UniProtKB/TrEMBL annotation:
Lineage: Bacteria, Bacillati, Actinomycetota, Actinomycetes, Kitasatosporales
Record keyword Ribosomal protein present: no
Database matches in Pfam families: ADP_ribosyl_GH
Family: Belongs to the ADP-ribosylglycohydrolase family.
Full protein name: ADP-ribosylglycohydrolase family protein
Ranges annotated as biased composition (Low complexity): 308-319
Keyword annotations from UniProtKB, A to Z: Hydrolase
Organism whose genome encodes this protein: Actinacidiphila acididurans
Region (Disordered), start-end ranges: 308-334
InterPro entries: ADP-ribosylglycohydrolase, Ribosyl_crysJ1, Ribosyl_crysJ1_sf
Length: 334
């Protein structure tokens, strides 16, 4: 259970730590603390410990899974849409376009992708910690399928689905106490062949974020940077610090890093001061979640996911849908 708590809290803490440095240069966190600045000090329009849209959307996903007894894409999408209408402080441009365009859940992202051709941002990956915890007990095929379905609600590019599916699988392995890095080959074998080579490149042990060919707001270097940060450090704090110090989309890279590192090291590895400071405002509900509520959410997701994995489909809500079919892209290759 401490690993599940670590995944959810870890993602929120990474998000909040990185938020003040978003779109800044590399090394900004180290420079700030080296000059006497305190970590989790806020800045850039963010309160100390305030989480961004990354964690807000993750909470909405988690609460839908619990309240609906499983994955109901239409319900998740409506929660997203209400949240977007409440004018959150931060929201990705692509996500905003999809959620405010007036199309239903099973057409909105695909229509956006058809017009824009590319939609492989990290906006689906960033919110995946809660769903990764919930679907972990269901095993590799189910957790990767669920990740794709959730990603497809806002991101029409299958590249975004595959990155989120890999993250789900790595968290699943970490929650079991095994090494998620050792599971990379088996996870990659489940990736759609059209996207497998690109992910194999950024997830290789020899890869460094300096080798990225896109800004880390794209799904490939975002996931690759998170795995790099966990691989090259030995603790939760060092992993998220390394992620923030990469610069660029610091809140999201650190949120993804924090979710994976939290699953690896557990809740107690996250500095207590960071956990105490973190808070997640939800403008669509008027609530603000803090450490206690986030911890309870993580526990509930882990328990409910385990119960769902052991029950029948009818008893546990909707089974993960096939985004390749729902969005009119045909069946998966391979």
């Amino acid at each position: 259970m401490r690993r599940a708590e670590g995944a959810v809290l870890g993602a929120a803490v990474g998000d909040a730590l990185g938020a003040p440095f978003e779109f800044g240069v590399g090394g900004a966190l180290s420079a700030w603390t080296g000059n006497g600045g305190a970590e989790m000090a806020g800045g850039g329009g963010w309160e100390p410990g305030e989480a961004t849209d990354d964690t807000q959307m993750a909470v909405l996903v988690g609460e839908s899974l619990l309240e609906r007894g499983g994955l109901e894409p239409a319900d998740v999408f409506e929660r997203f849409r209400a949240w977007a209408a409440a004018e959150p402080k931060d929201i990705g441009l692509q996500t905003e376009d999809v959620l405010t365009g007036g199309l239903p859940w099973d057409r909105a992202a695909a229509a956006h992708f058809a017009v824009n051709s590319r939609a492989a941002g990290n906006g689906a990956l960033m919110r995946a910690a809660t769903s990764a915890v919930y679907f972990a007990p269901a095993g590799r095929p189910a957790t990767m399928a669920a990740a794709r379905s959730l990603s497809a609600l806002t991101h029409g590019d299958p590249a975004a689905w595959e990155g989120t599916a890999i993250f789900h699988e790595l968290v699943r392995v970490a929650l079991s106490g095994a090494d998620p890095l050792a599971a990379l080959p088996s996870a990659l074998a489940e990736v759609d062949p059209a996207h497998r080579d690109r992910y194999a490149t950024v997830l290789a042990a020899s890869w460094h974020p300096d080798l990225a060919t896109e800004f880390n707001g794209a799904v490939w270097p975002c996931l690759g940077s998170a795995v790099w940060a966990v691989r090259t450090t030995g603790s939760y704090p060092d992993a998220v610090r390394a992620a923030v110090d990469l610069g660029g989309d610091t809140d999201t890279v650190a949120a993804v890093t924090g979710g994976l590192a939290g699953a690896v090291y557990g809740l107690d590895a996250i500095p207590a001061a960071w956990r105490t400071a973190v808070h997640v405002p939800l403008p669509s509900t008027g609530r603000t979640l803090r450490q206690a509520e986030l911890t309870e959410l993580a526990r509930d997701l882990a328990r409910a996911g385990a119960a769902a994995a052991g029950g029948s489909r009818e008893a546990t809500g909707s089974a993960p849908s096939d985004p390749y079919r729902v969005h009119g892209l045909g069946g998966r290759a391979g």
